Amino acid sequence: MMILKHFRQGMLMLSLQLCCVCSISLTASGQKTKLTGTGDFIYGRPGKKGEVLKDTLYNRQVTNITGFRGPNFQPFFLVNTGGEGKDSIKRIPLLSLFQAKIKSADKQDSLVYMFYGSYLWQVLKEKNNLRVLYRSYDKDDTIYDGTNNQSQTNRYSLESIIVLRNDRKIWNIPETNYSKKSLLKIINSRYHQSFREKDFSGPDQLLDYLLEAENKGI
Questions:
Q1: Which residues contact 90 (CB under 8 A, 6 or more apart)?
Q2: Of 65, 117, 177, 208, which sits most exposed with the smallest number of CB within 10 A?
Q3: Which of 116, 95, 90 is nearest to 169 (CA)?
Q4: Could you tell me what percent of the chain has a pLDDT over 70?
Q5: Can you tell me the distance from the alpha carbon of 48 to that of 74, in angstroms, rounded to the nearest whole number?
Q6: What DSSP string runs through 154-187?
Q7: Of 88, 38, 86, 37, which is closest to residue 58 (Cα–Cα)?
């Protein structure tokens, strides 16, 4: 039984390494700084008494996309509403979105955003009933020095990952940083492995391993 388990884990790592080679060859060809696509949006606007009203745009041309692959938390999208001239372009800030799906021109890649737990997340990966959500945000830490009556603020950016099953957070996979070190710690602990950082090309391959392992029940 243990031999079979180790064989399955070995085959899983081999398949992930092959996928990684393919992904590297795809990105090596390079991408334009700004891309275009077609998007469906549900987004908010303030009402008379502060309530948020929802607007929708479907199957509209979108620009100012910096990329379709990997984490993509950009400030806004420029969307053609179907009119003419400058009035036809609407600027939709990312943080006003409730839900969005933007497909690349060749329909091969997409960006998906959704609300979960009061925050907007990018759906970074999906496999069967599993979803990996990603968000980035800035955090301020203020330290007050009472002796010198001074305060010092450190601002830094964080990138977080959560894993959902059937759109509910898997309770024993904690929210973690989007980094090789953080994800490797979870994988080694959860799946009783002893991988090292050099065994994976980056966080993306670690997430592929996690999804495969969760689907196969390793």
A1: 57, 78, 79, 80, 81
A2: 117
A3: 116
A4: 75
A5: 28
A6: EEEEEEEEEEEETTEE-TTS--EESSHHHHHHHH
A7: 38
Q: How do residues 102-111 score in pLDDT, each as one tens digit?
A: 999 888 899 9
Distance CA 175, CA 197 (A): 19
* DSSP assignment letter at 67: -
- What pLDDT is stored for residue 66 in this prediction? 83
Whole-angstrom CA distances from 29 to 25, 32, 34, 49 are: 7, 10, 15, 50
Mean pLDDT for the stretch of residues 68-91? 83
On the 0-12 / 13-18 / 19+ scale of CB atoms within 10 A, 196 is exposed
Separation CA 41–CA 62 (nearest Å): 10
- Show the tokens assigned to 143: 């330290």
